[in-house]
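Weekly modeling sync, notes
Attendees: S.R. (lead), two postdocs, one rotation student

Agenda item 3: backlog of single-chain predictions. S.R. asked that every request posted to the team notebook include the full sequence so nobody has to chase files. The rotation student volunteered to paste the first one in as an example of the format we agreed on. Action items at the bottom.

Example entry:
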Amino acid sequence: ALNNILRGNTGNNILDGGAGADVLVGDTGADTFVFRAVNEMGIGADRDVISDFNSLQGDKIDLTKFDANLLTAGFNGFSFIGAADFTGAGQLRFVDHVLSGNVSGNTGADFEIQLVGVNSFSANDLVA
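Predicted structure, as returned to the notebook:
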């Protein structure tokens, strides 16, 4: 897996880093940051970083291609739980500039996305 730096421009970009600990820079415009699978992501030093996420510009995180619950058959979407602790698979939470997700049903994060300088995040910041 490559650790990439992907840069957008002033347009509305779609950035998909794939596997590796990537740094994604959308620049201005309503950018979409796409994540496809837990095996393309990591936690801690192995997580992806979005350096300029800005919900006021219309930036979004797209996890719609991502199976949120590996414990059940079929394709499952995520539920955003704010800053609450994980209680099961298929949940996303945002704490301390990090969006984390649980797909395995354990009590910890299975993947993380660091949002540099972002203090608040809501379900509206996700592609529905």
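Discussion: group reviewed the output briefly. The first strand starts at residue 5 and ends at 7.
Action items: rotation student to repeat for the remaining queue; S.R. to check formatting next week.
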